[in-house]
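A protein record pairs a chain with a discrete description of its three-dimensional fold. The following entry can be read in just this way.
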Amino acid sequence: VAEGRPRRENRRRPLRYRHEQPALLRSLPPVESMQAGDVLGSASASQPPPCPVRDLLISQRNKFGLFRQYHAADFPSHDPEVEAQLSDISNSTSNDQNSRSQSEYLFQPYPNKNAFLLGEWYWNGGTQKTKECFKKLTNIICDQSFDPADIRDISWDALNDNLGASSDSEGLWFDEPDAGWTQTSITLPVPFHRNTPTPGVRSYTFPPFRHRSIVSVLKEKMANAHDFKHFHLEPYELRWRRKNMPETESTRVYGEMYTSPAFLEAQEEIQTADGEPGCSLPRVLIGLMFGSDSTHLTSFGTASLWPCYLYFGNESKYRRCMPTCNLCNHIAFFRKVPPEFKDFVASHSGGKNPSNAFMTHFQREYFHAQWKELLDEDFLEAYEHGVVIECCDGKKRRFYLRIFSYSADYPEKVLLSSIRNLGSCPCPRCLVPKDSIDKLGTKFDQRRRVTLARKDNLQYRARISSARDIIYKQNRTVDSNFVDHLLKPESLVPIENAFSARLSSFGFNLFSIFLVDFLHEFELGVWKKVFIHLLRILQSIDGATNTLDSRFRAVPTFGHDSIRRFTNNVSELKKLGARDYENLLQCSIPVFEGLLPEPHNSDLLDVLFTLAHWHAIAKLRQHTELSLQVLESVTIRLGGLLRKFWDTTSEAFDAKELNREVAARVRRSSKKSTSSSTSSSTQKASEPTSAFGKQSKVLNLNTYKDHSLGDYVEMIRRNGTVDSYSTEAMELEHRSPKSQYLRTSRKDFESQISRIERRQARIRPELPTSNYHIGKTQNHALDLGSLSRESGSLATKDFATRLKEHLFPRILKKLEADTPSFELGGPGLKEMARDTVIIKNNRVFAHKLARFYYTTYDVRRSEDVINPRTSHCNIMLLSDFFSNAQNSLDTATEHPFLYGRVIGIYHINIVYIGPGMQGYEPMRFDFLHVRWFYIDKTQAPRRGASAWESLRLDLLSFPPTTNDDAFGFLDPALVLRSCHLIPAFSCGKKGSEKAGHNILRPRDGDDWNSYYVNRFADRDMAMRYHWGLGIGHTYS
């Protein structure tokens, strides 16, 4: 398999099949303009206009085989794909993000351009100034068009007040009414049970909360020309025809919300329903995606904010989930029950403080009362009858609102769905009992999720109403046995849910919007729990924890920020976020290998591989029916392996609490203790934790987060990929109010933050086409003769001769010359290359970096940076030995990739004087000096034909440096991308006598015996090993 450098480059596939640049979807056919009579009021005032005949319309395929299907009367006239540029589908960090045409700047309410630029720098540049921010300021004031007179007499305070004003304030600058923030006070009935001195219901008015009208937010969006051109008014089904697939066959592609079956079904419902009398305007579905989460505004203190965010599912998730695109709309700042409420309750309860159950009940009541204010009459009118809005293109349309998702962590899902926290049926989507939720992956479990799905039906609402009558009319406590008898079997609470109260009459099922949350359910849920339990097991083995920490610190980084450096001891779990746990999983297999005795080591590696595989596939940003079948099979395998691991380790190891868990338990017990005084409690808390002893712990699989993994396949099939509705985007958006808080006076900061949000919302502020980039500079020249003599390295042996051999076929290809035939007894390749290739000045020119651009599986442009002086020096390319006839990596008999370590990046100027020469002008050629890996067959998987079946990573080793094929040269255009290699720690390091003599990379003296290819380094890397499933990987 990859046992040497590629010898015959003319055997490789054409370059266009390796580096196919991403392409936009094909443009739609032009649509005839609307007739003059197609306006509001053209139909009879009493009869709705007839529905147009709808048909299946199919667009042309692009070069990746992607095409669109519309179920409509005609192709839409507004096509956001036409407005998209190649830069919109690029993830490259080297793109110029600052280029913007002058026509995009709207200066109002600023008096001129220079005032606007300074205001934009102040409000959108962040509170902690960086070098880039300082450079931006200097660019503004050093520009030739900057005139100090433009800003000399501006009243900045008045201008900023105008910028943050609401729609009814002076100085309006939008043509359409602005979405202003308002304050609403809420009064709720407070029930006092029959054992209080004054039983009955009292009213309490809560402090006002700030919010915006959802309909006005939509109007503002439709008036924004920049966002409108990217806004999808007509959903479509995205399909993919694979290579060698019949013309009539294709597979569905899942990704965006506006291409999901749920969105298309809602679109069909709106288009086929009876229209409004006398209206023939186009009907547009608006997909609402909410999210909320409480966040602390400071590292110290109690200042917190509970924002509610709104996204539009009509916008691409690639823009919507990117904070720099500013597509998140802040619509409310929820309030918690104030401390004064306890005084009010105590005054009517004979001085007794309210119980925890009572306070929890009223937090739920208050929260849903705030949501009822958001779901106001304007919202309900737009939901049922639509709202007519004149868009920025001058056309009127009727917009219908629909809610598709609500992103929240589990405690907030419990609050929103009005169920009990960790009750007997803990899932907000189904009624599977808690004692049965550990059956992940079984057919029994899959059936029960469907048959026991929660429904907002008449029976559900009758139970809630009866329970509330017991509390508010019969004066029972909120947690009385009478209430529990009604609601506890289904883990319900006596709350009138806002979504049910407002929308159930329209057939809305409130439980359908609580989709899966990858960040909290897996990365901070299942995987974090498994990792912590593994730490408990390792602490029972002498030295295992220290070995784990040292191995993680030795794991190299990868990519721009795909795999970060593990600087601290990971076993201490200090300040680890979801991103850190993700990296721990991606690199866990080589690190944990060999730490447990057999057979537990093999069982653990099976679990870690399957967890990493599930993580990579479930987090894909683009799925097809084929990849969902893979995810389904991996989910089944994962459930079985977790149960097996629980069975085998629970008895084999005495897993006890970690030190941090003991300390946390002591703190909890100290808080609960009420028998001792404050001083004695303090003394008790300060005692050594070892005095309390460590309790035994087992791996708990009966949790909602384990249960939720079984919903991912169907959730993706119905609503698109998980990155579209994950809480990750919401967590990133928390940076916005936190930075805005620093600009406030810390008093009544909600109102100040809402004004700052308005100011920032009003002043929002060379895609690479080659396969790689190597600098043009010639400052670092190396003489070929001295290079071999001074280095004394086997890597530079016969450097010039072998380089000419490598360049000779590339020269002929560039000149489009015929390849010479080598007759028996005549000059061979070496002799012809030596005689016809002349290296100008006998020099090569070294470079420090090389950028490689590649197309990802989801047809986006990305880049890797190679630096031979760092760990970012490993590359992968297609193997010559992979058969074109094979279309699945799982059935391949040979490995499809070659791997190498770049030890030098060079360019050279040569003069060719052989057959086909076109002059004596020097030609530049870039090349890489590579040390090749080979796949270690002695450690190859023995349980299957591929790594997917064997649940093991591919193992690489260096050949002896004395081999002729140990080093070689490579055309950079043949590089697919970089790869992440992790040392096989269990195999040990090479001795100095085996490491070879290679002072070009002094770090190679510390070579390990073997390396694992981390196929889970990122999502694109994982899909390269699922041969033929990556749409952007045209070579497969």
Summary: The mean pLDDT is 84. DSSP finds 35 helices and 28 strands in the chain. The radius of gyration is 33 Å.
